[in-house]
């Protein structure tokens, strides 16, 4: 099924744009899927993209625009007049339209909305702009098929045909009262097989799941995943049907959340792409690096405090990067498992039980790693004075540091979660840095205790 | 809409199981969604779960089983007889059935398949067991609605009604030739609005996307996401319709992939949950920790090689954890951005351009961090001999190490990707460890150059 965007095709498109061969271009783009149009807009240069955007019909370009990265879309739309933007918005589903408008400069938002010709669409957009972006209201679209319980099957089919023109995918037919209160849904099978004079109230299914317009988007995503729902209606306080959320929006939501968590774990504070500018990338990366710098200075200061044993036990100092690395790695592992467990609601039971388990786990790992390190250092430095003693000090300290790192890595995300803070922030550099400092402190304390 | 699984409810269920109040239990579970049944099976103890599994009808339990974690399901099924397992399998969609059977001990797989009564289901399962788990064939289900082009609308509706009983969700109606070759799809709207005597061949849409049964699952996931497809048909070499893949399977696929990448970044080698046993968790965590240990020993050996400057420049040694931490953090950031970019097909252009950009970025970050470190160390140690000189050496080395870390973090995933190896493996401990070693080596080299 794949449509390939080759360099040759791109070159051809560029030439046609240069020659303003509008007719050829329109023919060329006739059967191209909007996702592919988006890819082409992304590959050509700025002026070429604008040329295509103005040439192609809004139905194609509006969908292509929604496939682009937020910042590319924002910049492209900013180059259009409010009238031109409104034409694109006109063709979008309400949820996309609201997303696109929300990204615009607040100064021109009103001007764009004013230019929308379809009064119903305009009113829907105004209503939806009020909902929080991450709430059910912010995720839903107004487009759906609703039928009144008082209608007959024949009337219903007629109405559906009209409504279906505005709805990309049908998913479900929702049944409402005269006052628009959601009371059930209709199965296509029943609709197909009932006599055309049957009343909807006789054949609808009164069981229907719904979410409230103010519900948190993440909760809606979990619900839809848990119950394998492809669409869920959104209602207000009076159970009036406001819109519906479809699974494709949730797929994007899940992907974005996963990306964000992954980047947080890697020490990147805001969503960036490989192709972003160096300034944007620096802004996203520098904060955690700076935190790491402070941690390193802390570790250096601690080591300075143990300078008196430097002459006799230089070996201890050589093993500080190892200690810091192990403390960091164990901490990141522990926190990653807890953060994922929390995200999937898998982490139950008391915090103290978790910590006990993590201690046992860290003790086992620490024992194995400590033994390996002892075997190596005892052998490698066997000709140096006091080598066995030093090897023992390093290994036992490593054991203690690993246990501490596991506890900190488990405790911090659990603690943040209890406080209502996203625990994902606790993975990566945050844990690494705190474990570096504590690790080196504990290491020298214990080593000194053993050696003196 | 939420059904709450409270402690009180669980206690009640446990009491009823103890008293073998089957009638009450059956009533209690009557309207419970299978996802909630799964949660209850997860919360009660082993014998209680088995009791419920045997008591409740297979239609409910088979779906609940598919919601459980793989290992829990596997253990539960292992406690049942082949006959009992076959009853569960009988109620599953073919894709779930095959997943469940593939998890069983190979010794009893055949015995279970033998016990399946529905011959068509049995044949489908045997066919599907041949496909690779991660291919389109492994992801698809055989259940779908197919109509022949020669049928009339009336015959089609009649057939659909029959087929729909086996299909949970309709999504699309596929049109095939007499030889079962996929030639198009049918819109419900057209079906609803055409005369009952119309031939399907007159109203079907001849444009339909499909994937080949051997296509890679990840590619199918990308395709369905790109084109916002909710279902896609799967065909063989002769374009014969074999099955279809639905978006809910892809959601699970995306989630699993994201989880795996996240865990790799955190240094966890196999999929684990917070609730897994200490042995399982150790097996997943120890390999990378061991790698970290080797890296640390390498760093210590390098530092031992610079022992001759220890007496005069102890400060250099105090800053090794800082150097190692910064090298690790920068490397993880760089690799995470590249790994994500590769996963989303965002990374285009030549490797050398990427490396140049990363060098510029690292140089900017390194300059800012180096200046900060210089300011601090020059001030903090201002009373020590040769402090300005040492501060300069540490800061310039940090600058060099950051550039190196960025290059390694960018190069390794790009290189692995070119070689066809999953670049996600390059994040986390792998990058951290190699950067630790190289970082400390470069740090001492440059510092020595400056100081002597």
UniProtKB/TrEMBL annotation, chains A, B:
It is a multi-pass membrane protein. InterPro entries: CBS_dom (IPR000644), CBS_dom_sf (IPR046342), Mg_transptr_MgtE_intracell_dom (IPR006668), MgtE_N_sf (IPR038076), MgtE_transporter (IPR006669), SLC41_membr_dom (IPR006667), SLC41_membr_dom_sf (IPR036739). Residues 140-202, 204-260 form the CBS domain. One of its GO terms (cellular component) is plasma membrane. It is found in: Cell membrane; Membrane. One of its GO terms (molecular function) is metal ion binding. SUPFAM superfamilies: CBS-domain pair, MgtE membrane domain-like, MgtE N-terminal domain-like. Its main location: membrane. The chain crosses the membrane at residues 286-306, 318-339, 360-381, 393-416, 428-446. Keywords: CBS domain, Cell membrane, Magnesium, Membrane, Metal-binding, Transmembrane, Transmembrane helix, Transport. CDD domains: CBS_pair_Mg_transporter (cd04606). The keyword Phosphoprotein does not apply. Homodimer. Acts as a magnesium transporter. NCBIfam families: mgtE. Belongs to the SLC41A transporter family. This is Magnesium transporter MgtE. It comes from Dokdonia pacifica.
